[in-house]
Amino acid sequence: MTDAKYPNGTCFVIAPIGAEGSDTRKRSDDWLKGIIRPAAKACGFKAVRADEIDKSGNITSQVIRQIIETPMVIADLTELNPNVFYEMAIRHVAEKPIVHIIQEGSTIPFDVQPYRTIHVGSGFEAGLTAIEEIGNHIRDAAATGARIENPVTQAQVNLALRSTGKPEDTAIADMAEQFSDIRNAIKEVADLVSRDADEQPSWSLRQASLARRLRRRFDTIADMNARIDKMRQVEKRMGSLESIGVPLLPVEKMRLRRRRDASDAEALQRVENLLFGRKEDEEQSSEDIK
Asked: E strands, 42-145, where?
């Protein structure tokens, strides 16, 4: 439902609520009233948390319905609450806009690390900054035609590419996964750099190991991309010659197809090396750290 005050409807808030009087409840209430609700209201949404649903009936069913049907969701990942992640996964599967937030200093779980999460600090100034950032993210996510990116949508894209049976599509799917690995590795490097050297004496060795892994990933992706371009150039050449009426003799077609197939085979071999080489990379990284 919408009204004049909230023309964009409900923004459902997924958050750890905790028992009455607990630290979890106090922080969650403070964030809802002082940060989330003002940010949502500025974007034309009414922020509603699960414990504020006033309809009778099964609360779990009502929560899931809100998660699936509301035009906007904000998920508070602080404390890594299992219920929050379960509900967030439902929203991911629904492929609808969601904004991730977490308390500053908290660790973001591996599966959602590559996706934008707003870190909320403590204090008045940090609260104002969080309101602005959440508002901007809500506007971006709610924009018409905005692309929904989460682990589920990315996996679906990769599955669709692999299902075509084309080597170039398989290679593209693998490159997408490699970019995800690279983003995670960069995040790990950033985390290491931010730690105190006395607290983590081996950070420089681990950082060097991660840098080598990143370089290998980038080199592999560049090589795979070059081979995909080569395959497409061969296909384009065959199509261009025939489209302008230049007849290709069977032997010429065979020669072009052999070149294309050779590129296909090389690309597939690179994919195999990439997939089966991950374990070697990890083993090599372990040795580097030692």
From this structure: 46-49, 72-76, 98-103, 117-120
* Tokens, residue 160: 């669709």
**Residue ranges per domain, the chain?**
10-148, 164-289
**Encoded tokens for 197:** 């050297």
How many other C-beta atoms can be found within 10 angstroms of the C-beta atom of residue 175? Answer: 20
Q: Which tens digit of pLDDT belongs to each residue from 67-104?
A: 999 999 999 999 999 999 999 999 999 989 999 999 99
CA distance 273 to 268: 9
Residues sharing a CB contact under 8 Å with residue 180, sequence separation 6 or more, in sequence order:
114, 154
Tokens of 251: 């032997």
**What is the CB neighbour count within 10 angstroms for residue 245?**
6
Do β-strands 98-103 and 117-120 pair in parallel, antiparallel, or remain unpaired? parallel
Angle CA 30–36–39, to nearest 5: 135
Does an H or E element contain 24, and which?
helix 23-31
Please name which of 226, 253, 229, 228 lies closest in space to residue 241, comparing C-alpha atoms.
253
DSSP 8-state secondary structure symbol assigned to residue 191: H
Comparison of pLDDT for 176 and 162, the residue scoring more: 162
CA distance 3 to 145: 24
pTM score > 0.85 for this model? no
- Who contacts 113 (Cβ-Cβ below 8 Å, separation ≥6)? 183, 184, 187
Q: Which of 26, 141, 266 has its CA nearest to residue 133?
A: 141
- Residues 170, 271 contacting (CB under 8 angstroms): yes
Is the Cβ–Cβ distance between 39 and 134 less than 8 Å? yes
Tell me, what's the pLDDT at 150?
79
136: left (phi > 0), else alpha (psi -120 to 50), else beta? alpha
Domain formed by 10-148, architecture: 3-Layer(aba) Sandwich (3.40)
